[in-house]
């Protein structure tokens, strides 16, 4: 029966001179009706919402998937995992105990620090709980002869030695080149050394490198002529002051494993974050 109806329709098309349509989109069937009203089509399944980026303060730890392993202090991080189901417990915070330092490496570092001309005092072991502390801390007063750390601060010897070496070999020569051969740096004004806190002052997340004695934040440089070079956004600063800041920032990555400057994020607009966190394969993060 269907074959006969089809033949009749085809004959009708040929007799009337009509042509069959060329290849094209298949006509969409009209929606079925129910009681004279169109029957609603089913909605397509919605895609699951993507989790919002996490924020540990800028930069948070860089050991997450989107960043190289062990990326250091205060780096921004994302967490693309969907939030846990309602009622499930949040993952427990990982507490890293205070690391015991090698007595031989510590003694070698102290000798190098004395040789370069730093003034410091050895201090008692710090363990403030929650992973905060320094096994063998020192109180640094003077980075180099005639160059104070203002105010003095507690840190690991390794951090102090990196700071002193960078000041002597990179920052001091850059100041002479930028501002004249008689220019001397007389102080590094610091905004933070050892402090027990999470990264970028967040209420949760990983412990800051400051809490391990690995980090120091430099807010400004004092010069012998009374001039103060304040750390601030200077990427577009075409003056010698801008060139000096960019030079010391770039050179710092030769001495520290993390360098964050005002161009890295809002949390570092007014200081340089320098730390000596250890990473696999000697990786360094400089922004």
From TrEMBL:
Q: Which Pfam families match?
A: Extensin-like_C (PF06904)
Transmembrane residue ranges = none
**Ranges for domain Extensin-like C-terminal:** 108-287
Biased composition regions of type Low complexity, renumbered to the chain: 21-32
- Renumbered to this chain, the Basic and acidic residues biased-composition regions fall at 71-81
Where are the residues of the annotated region Disordered? 20-91
- This one is known as Extensin
Its ancestry begins with: Bacteria, Pseudomonadati, Pseudomonadota, Alphaproteobacteria, Hyphomicrobiales
